[in-house]
Amino acid sequence: MAKDIILLGPPGAGKGTQAHLLEANHAMVQLSTGDMLRAAVKSGSDLGKKVQAVMDAGELVSDDLVSALIDDRLNQIGPDAGAIFDGYPRTEPQAHSLDELLEARGRKLDHVIELEVDEDALVDRITGRFTCAVCGEGYHDRYKLPKVENTCDECGSHEFKRRPDDNEETVRKRMAEYRAKTAPILPIYEKRGIVSRIDGMGGIEEVRAAIEKVLAD
Length: 217
Ligand code: AP5
Hints:
The chain is of the alpha/beta class. The protein is about 45% helix and about 15% strand. Helix 1 (about 15-25) packs across helix 9 (about 205-215), helix 4 packs parallel to helix 5 (about 90-105) and helix 6 (about 120-125) packs across helix 7. BIS(adenosine)-5'-pentaphosphate binds near residues 34 and 37.
């Protein structure tokens, strides 16, 4: 069976970037609560309307809601695929829910990988981020531009978009939420001896190689 892992780190640490690379190279599936919530907002559903204001303010949506999303998504993953939890769990109640959801399926966490980063550099990373509006491939104004100007490397689209919560004020709020509510869940996993810390300030490829090393252990 492939491994189940959590990628932990503040906004812009590179969780989504690394999750996509892992998906491309392993039998692993990214479960990003941020992506699931953004899809709900885009659909215009009642759920989306409810969470949009919370996300735009950089605050956390309710524990029950995100755990229900993960519960549903785990049902779509076969036993042979590993899960990459990206942006979940973010609070202690979510960490306990995840344990229950995995146990109910005979799964367990193999690694919690914390990407350690410098917060000021993250503001620069996040405010420069944009994605392809069609396939979702991620780019950055300075660190990862499309190879051909204004053309997505993956699907050739010419449409790109930026997240409404990627402005400096909201990013600072998201970081404060991370420090107050998410970083404190690390001891839960430290007690189990499954935490690995990786320097997230290296290049994308360096970080990828460090994560591969953890997975090989
Ligand atoms: P979410 O979507 O999870 O956002 P986040 O945690 O703030 O993380 P980001 O997606 O901003 O950053 P990332 O670490 O994935 O970085 P990325 O790889 O894109 O959550 C958004 C909101 O949804 C929350 O604020 C909350 O409201 C709600 N929410 C979500 N989950 C929730 C939960 N469980 N509970 C409650 N509420 C929840 O990289 C950033 C940029 O840097 C990119 O441009 C990339 O190209 C570039 N980059 C990446 N790595 C490197 C590198 N090594 N060097 C240089 N550039 C790099």
